[in-house]
């Protein structure tokens, strides 16, 4: 396995749960920060998307990332395609972080994390914004 | 009720018979005798009724087939292809035919229809082929690609399509598995790749989608019922009309939102009321009515006993619960606060009284709303018990079966009245206080009094000697209650149509 730049494998010993480290790219608001990602693969992977969450102490402060680690990214939910890979998701997340212009939580963060279930795939996502 | 075979044109301009539970039989009889004028007067549509038609599944399938057949003939495609094209146009034949004449290929691509069968065959894997889904690089076995050229191995394709159809219930637009590719997988390809049971599930989904695609059709939501109901009112009218329909299976529901009968409250109001009852907006009200904030650290504090000398557990601030001022100014008057009338504390108390009043108002309506639902259930339970008793009575005495049947009708009417009453409380909750509201509440009260009287009558112990008397009383009350219900429904429906009700919220669009 050769992870893309900025990504390192913390734990990938089985095909159920992977933990990866993600580093904020240079020249972006997240430069120097380290994040942890958790990938949960269901039995139907890759036909079904894995469950992807930010975990650990440092959850990126980003308009599309809730403080419970849930990520609002269309390719993880209804725009998933079986051609996607762990590497391509990491790349999407990197690009999502890198294009961020102001570090803030989603506007509905407080309300969302109170009612959200632990699996973000149970949330009906509406993708408000394609620009970030 | 229309039945039997139905041509697709009937969806467009059929006549609507008024129909109530009994009207079918009575109408036929009346025609035989030649009193149809009188009967039609009697069954004139009431203000709270809407026109609708019930279609069994077979009629829905027939209508679908007839539409596709028609289009297939015009465009010179097969019936399946015509159906796929129609689906992408929400079954709007005219628009499809018109656009197809101008941009045939674009329309075909959009609907995922491939006219030329040669394009959809399974390929042999090309040299150096690696399936981008499973990374299989063996050269044996078939592969598949659409016109976009994204080729995947056949087992992956089959898994993908099966997943989409069986797990995700998708039948409209299944796209090429490649990320970002929006080429629609055509029906022939699906048919070639998936197993027969999956294909039949796919067909079933398409039939379901047909009803969902048409604004004036809706499936009957009752369990195991396969009928669809057609109601041709525009959806925009549902703010002022409560489109209650009754399927031939007996289930009454709202055509606008698909919930059970919620007359007289319009859909938007129902949605708001349910949200209010379900979410924790009332928790917030409770907090503001029963708690205060510490004057220093703003922690929320509920006083659960003791004197007015409060000490915040968090920041140790000492204050007076009554006036919220610092305790240091109070000395030793532990249970009285002589500073009560000072203006700074009056404001805080006003706010609290207001929120308490609004909570109490809500609870007033909610309790009655919930109570009628509960009582309807109790009425049913009681009926079950009584019914057994009546049957026994019928066996042991000379009463006929017909003579002991009056209770059933009474309980049915009672239940429907309780359901109506229930929603009148949600309706009343949102009404602004004015004379019209007073009139509404008068009607509501009359119905409620009548309902409770009938309910009480049904609880009376049944004695053999008095059964004739009881029967007369019950029949009498049943008719009266039924007519009070009509008065309420008629008046609210007319009021909605005339815009007579004044609500303090805006639920306009659903």
Draw up the topology in text.
The complex is a heterodimer of chains A (132) and B (510).
Chain A: E1 7-11, E2 17-23, E3 34-40, E4 51-55, H1 86-98, H2 109-115
Chain B: H1 10-13, H2 23-33, H3 36-42, E1 53-55, H4 57-75, H5 79-88, H6 93-102, H7 104-111, E2 123-124, E3 142-145, E4 151-153, H8 154-167, H9 187-193, H10 196-213, E5 217-219, E6 228-230, E7 244-246, E8 252-254, H11 267-278, H12 281-290, E9 291-293, E10 300-302, E11 309-311, E12 318-320, H13 343-396, H14 406-429, H15 435-459, H16 467-498
Antiparallel strand pairs in B: 1-6, 2-3, 3-4, 5-6, 7-8, 9-10, 11-12
Helix pairs in contact in B: 4-5, 5-7, 6-7, 12-13, 13-14, 14-15, 14-16, 15-16
What does this entry show, briefly?
Chain B: Keywords: Metal-binding, Repeat, Transferase, Ubl conjugation pathway, Zinc, Zinc-finger. The complex is a heterodimer of chains A (132) and B (510). Chain A is an alpha+beta fold.
List its traits:
heterodimer, A: about 130 residues, alpha+beta, Ubiquitin Conjugating Enzyme, four-stranded antiparallel beta sheet, 2 helices, 4 strands, B: about 500 residues, mainly alpha, Herpes Virus-1, Four Helix Bundle (Hemerythrin (Met), subunit A), three-stranded antiparallel beta sheet, 16 helices, extended, disordered N terminus
CATH superfamily of chain A: Ubiquitin Conjugating Enzyme
Q: What's the assembly state of these chains?
A: heterodimer
What is the structural class of chain A? alpha+beta
The H-and-E topology of chain A, N to C, reads as EEEEHH
* Overall average residue pLDDT of chain B: 80
Strands of the widest sheet of chain B, in order across it, are: 1-6-5
Report mean pLDDT of chain A, rounded to a whole number: 84
Q: How far is it from the N-terminal to the C-terminal residue of chain A, by CA? A: 29 Å
- Molecular shape of chain B: extended
For the record, the count of structural domains of chain A works out to 1
- The name of the CATH topology of one domain in chain B is Four Helix Bundle (Hemerythrin (Met), subunit A)
Low-confidence stretches of chain A: none
Hey, roughly how much beta strand do the residues of chain B contain? Answer: 5-15%
Keywords (chain A): Ubl conjugation pathway
Pfam families (chain A): UQ_con
Protein name (chain A): UBC core domain-containing protein
InterPro entries (chain A): Ub_conjugating_enzyme, UBC, UBQ-conjugating_enzyme/RWD
């Amino acid at each position: 396995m050769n992870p893309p730049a900025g990504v390192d494998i913390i734990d990938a010993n089985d095909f159920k749960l992977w933990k990866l480290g993600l580093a904020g790219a240079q020249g972006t608001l997240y430069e120097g920060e380290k994040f942890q990602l958790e990938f949960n693969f269901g039995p139907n992977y890759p036909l079904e998307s894995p469950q992807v969450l930010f975990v650990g102490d440092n959850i990126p402060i980003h308009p599309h990332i809730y403080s419970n680690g849930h990520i609002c990214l269309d390719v993880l939910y209804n725009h998933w395609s079986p051609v996607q890979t762990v590497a391509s998701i990491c790349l999407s997340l990197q690009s999502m972080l890198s294009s961020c212009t102001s570090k803030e939580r989603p506007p509905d963060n407080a309300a969302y994390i109170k009612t959200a279930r632990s699996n973000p795939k149970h949330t009906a996502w509406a993708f408000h914004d394609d620009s970030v | 009720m229309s039945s039997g075979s139905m041509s697709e044109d009937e969806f467009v301009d059929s006549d609507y018979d008024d129909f109530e539970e009994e009207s079918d039989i009575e109408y036929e009889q009346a025609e035989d005798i030649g009193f149809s004028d009188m009967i039609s007067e009697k069954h004139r549509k009431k203000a709270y009724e809407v026109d609708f038609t019930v279609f069994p599944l077979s009629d829905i399938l027939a209508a679908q087939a007839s539409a596709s057949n028609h289009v297939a003939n015009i465009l010179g495609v097969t019936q399946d292809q015509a159906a796929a094209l129609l689906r992408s146009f929400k079954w709007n034949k005219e628009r499809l035919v018109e656009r197809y004449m101008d941009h045939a290929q674009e329309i075909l691509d959009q609907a995922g229809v491939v006219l030329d069968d040669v394009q959809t065959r399974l390929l042999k894997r090309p040299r150096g082929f690696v399936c981008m889904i499973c990374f299989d690089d063996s050269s044996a076995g078939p592969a598949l690609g659409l016109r976009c050229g994204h080729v995947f191995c056949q087992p992956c394709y089959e898994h993908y399509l099966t997943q989409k159809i069986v797990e995700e219930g998708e039948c409209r637009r299944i796209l090429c598995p490649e990320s970002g590719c929006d080429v629609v997988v055509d029906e022939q390809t699906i048919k070639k790749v998936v197993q027969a049971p999956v294909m039949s599930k796919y067909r079933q989904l398409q039939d379901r989608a047909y009803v969902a695609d048409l604004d004036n059709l809706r499936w009957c939501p009752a369990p195991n019922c396969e009928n669809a109901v057609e109601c041709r009112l525009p959806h925009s009218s549902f703010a002022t009309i409560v489109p209650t329909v009754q399927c031939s299976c007996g289930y009454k529901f709202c055509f606008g939102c698909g919930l059970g009968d919620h007359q007289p409250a319009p859909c938007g109001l129902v949605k708001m009321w349910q949200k209010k009852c379900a979410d924790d907006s009332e928790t917030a009200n409770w907090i503001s009515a029963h708690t205060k904030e510490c004057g220093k650290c703003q922690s929320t504090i509920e006083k659960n006993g003791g004197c007015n000398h409060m000490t915040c557990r968090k920041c140790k601030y000492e204050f007076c619960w009554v006036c919220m001022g610092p305790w240091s100014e109070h000395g030793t008057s532990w249970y009285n606060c002589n500073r009560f009338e000072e203006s700074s504390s009056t404001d805080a108390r006003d706010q609290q009284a207001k929120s308490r009043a609004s909570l109490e108002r809500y609870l007033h309506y909610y309790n009655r709303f919930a109570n009628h639902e509960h009582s309807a259930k109790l009425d049913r339970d009681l009926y079950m018990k009584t019914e057994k008793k009546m049957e026994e009575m019928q066996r042991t005495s000379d009463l006929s079966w017909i003579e002991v049947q009056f209770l059933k009708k009474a309980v049915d009417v009672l239940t429907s009245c309780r359901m109506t009453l229930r929603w009148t409380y949600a309706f009343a909750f949102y009404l602004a206080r004015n004379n019209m509201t007073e009139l509404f509440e008068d009607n509501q009260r009359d119905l409620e009094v009548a309902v409770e009287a009938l309910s009480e009558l049904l609880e009376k112990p049944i004695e053999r000697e008095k059964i004739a008397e009881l029967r007369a009383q019950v029949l009498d009350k049943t008719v009266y209650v039924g007519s009070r219900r009509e008065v309420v429904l008629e008046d609210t429906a007319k009021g909605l149509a005339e815009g007579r009700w004044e609500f303090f919220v805006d639920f306009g669009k659903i």
